[in-house]
Amino acid sequence: MRAAQFPSPGTCEMVAGETPSPKHGEVLIRVEACGVCGTDAHIYRGEFPARFPLIAGHEFAGVVEAIGPGVAHVQPGDHVAVDPNINCGVCRPCRRGMTHLCRDLFAIGVTADGGFATHCVLPARQSYRVPAGLPLEVAAMMEPVACCVHGIERAAIRPGAVAVLIGGGMIGLILLQLALLQGVSEAIVSEPVPEKRAAAEKLGASRVVDPSTEDLEQIVMEATEQSGAEVVIECVGSQQTAQQALSLAGEGGRVLFFGVAPQSARVEVSPYDVYRREITVTGSFTNPATNAAALALLAAGRVQVADLISHHLPLAEVTSGIELLESRAATKVMIDPQA
Q1: What is the Cα–Cα distance from 225 to 273, expressed in whole angstroms?
Q2: Are 161 and 231 within 8 A, CB to CB?
């Protein structure tokens, strides 16, 4: 097998070795598509807790090549997508049904080798059979779509609400589609990159805003009779946009922090304002039991991602994919490990 390995933060090298064999309860997957995520960039830069040396990549799909003893729900030849998050099952959050908040969460592509490789061995229970006809590069987006499904659940959108999404990258565009499915009356997307604003408009945003030249707060207030939005979703992960999100919520509004901000980031919150206007501030971490729903939405075409994949790169160009993502030149980079 071949893989793009991060020996340490800031370094990447191509490595080769024997293709592993699956043990009891495991499957061997030939990886056909693996998305480059912002988390991969943070790992590469040493800004996210990970295990080095590491084969990163946690958004992937492929074909089952072999199964270990005790595996029954998939067979060689099956197309599968991967849930990278493995919980311990015994810590307090797990025992209370919050497995995605497991204190000992183990993640393929973060603390175990992942999809930036021609092959990957993983617990069979982490594999989901892909509906017939769904392209594997679309199925590879199961994990981010599943995270977004959970985010929309946390946002508790009511039909007729005005929603503001700060950030029109891949995650913002998925959340936009899910918000529209929830019945928002208006969806305002703030995004400085023209191509991403165009994509948001094509997907149904009622208003796209260029924050570098337009006043987002003024636009939101004009759309809500000077009240503020019912739902504000921060998809960027910066201190500035997180602070801005708090200022855009109206009476009874909900602010969802979805973007991954630096651990050191801080924002100012007025307890009186939260109290008086009954604002809810919430977060969304990952994908608890939402993978099947994500695959169903992708298979039904209710969430469109194929046209949002802006770049396809071979395995040897993983770092180029990270750089494209960081430069904001890419909406989504998809790695073809077999190329």
Answers
A1: 19
A2: yes
Q: How far is CA 45 from CA 12, 248, 319, in A?
A: 11, 32, 11
Taking 70 as the pLDDT cut, the residues of the chain under it are none
Number of H helices, E strands in the chain: 11, 17
Q: Virtual CA dihedral for 313, 318, 320, 324, nearest 10 degrees?
A: 80
Q: Which residues, other chains included, contact 329 with Cβ-Cβ below 8 Å and sequence gap of 6+?
A: none
In sequence order, which ranges of 111-141 are alpha helices (DSSP H)? 136-139
Rounded CA-CA distance 191/166 in Å is: 7
Active site residues: 39, 42
Residues 6+ apart with CB under 8 A from 327: none
Q: pLDDT tens, 201-244?
A: 999 999 999 999 999 999 999 999 999 999 999 999 999 999 99
Instruction: Count other Cβ atoms within 10 Å, centred on residue 316.
Output: 15
Cβ(251)–Cβ(236) below 8 Å = no
pLDDT value at residue 262 = 85
What domains sit in the chain, N to C, each tagged with a CATH number? 2-141+305-336 (3.90.180.10), 146-283 (3.40.50.720)
